[in-house]
Prior knowledge:
Belongs to the universal stress protein A family. This is Universal stress protein. InterPro entries: Rossmann-like_a/b/a_fold, UspA. It is a single chain. The protein has about 300 residues and is an alpha/beta fold. It is built from 9 helices and 12 strands. A 10-stranded mixed β-sheet has the order 3-2-1-4-7-12-11-8-9-10, with helices on both faces. The two termini are about 35 Å apart.
Amino acid sequence: MTQRFVVGYIASDRGHDALALASFLAKGTDTELIIAMITPETSPYSGTHPLPLDDADSIIGKQIDTWMSEALAQVPEGIQAQGVVRSASGEAQGLMDVAAEFGAVAIVIGAATTALLRQFTVGTVASTLLHASPLPVALAPAGFAEEGPVTRITTLFGTRSGAAALIGTSVESALQRDVQLRLLSLVQLDRVPPSQVQEVEEFVREFGGAVLAGRAEALLESGKATVETVEGENLEAALEKANWSAGDVAFVGSSRLAQGGRIFLGARAQRLLRVLTVPVIVVPRAVLPAETPKRAHGAEPTETGTGR
C-alpha cells in the first residue's frame, strides 16, 4: 500500500531542502510525495486583495503554478509526486490539514541552519509543527542534497516516558527498510540506577507486542541492530563522539508534555537539534507502527523519550 509524505514547499532554499529530504526518504520505498504550497487565507479585513488561484489572469496564480512545476521537476525519476495548493490561517496548520486530507504518515520541512556550524535553527513553521503535529516531522538541514536511500537509522533514547514509542517506531522502520539500526542510549546522562533501566526488547514489547519484540531481538542478535551508550560531561559533548555517515537519519522523541499522541519538542530534543548534522525525524509519543515507510515491492535493500 502506497504511503504519503506531505512536503512543506516554498520557492526558497528551505523548500528545496524539504523536497530533497522527502525524496531521500522516499527512495526505495512505496511512498508518494504530496508537495504542498500553503497560501494565506484572505478576508474582507485582510490587507491583500483576494485573487483566485485558478484565475488564468492572476499574477499570483501564474507564479504559484510556475513554482509548483519547478518543484515537481525536481523530484527524482521513480518517485511518485503530486502538487497541491491550499489556503490556511498559517503554514503549519495548512500542512497538517493537507496531511489529514491525504492520509499522510509524515510531514517533511526544511529547517534553516547556521552557515558555519550546520546547526538546526527552528523557524516559526517548524516550531508550530514540533509542538502540535500528530505525525512524525522530518527536518532537513540547510543545503541537504543527499540522493538516498536511507542506509542507517540512529535512534537517540533515554529513560524518560515516550522511549517505547520511539524505539518501537525505529525498529519497525528499520525492518521495513531493511537497513541498519543504531540505538544510541542516553541512559548515562539520565543518571539512573542500572536496575531501573529497561532493555530494548522491553521497550519494543511495550510498543508493539511480543511479535515486534521478537523481531527486535533477532535484529540485535544478527548485528543488524546495535545498542551504543554515549557518555560525556553533557549531552552536546556526548553526541560529538557519535559518528555519522551519508545515508544516516536520526530519530528523536517527544517530551512527556506531549498530549493526545502529538509532538512536543522538549528541552533535551531541542539541544539535540543544535548538535545533529543529519536529517532528524521527531516521533510523536503515540505513533503507530503502521505509520512508517514501507520498502517498495522488489526494491533492493540498501524518525526516545529524549524530551523533557
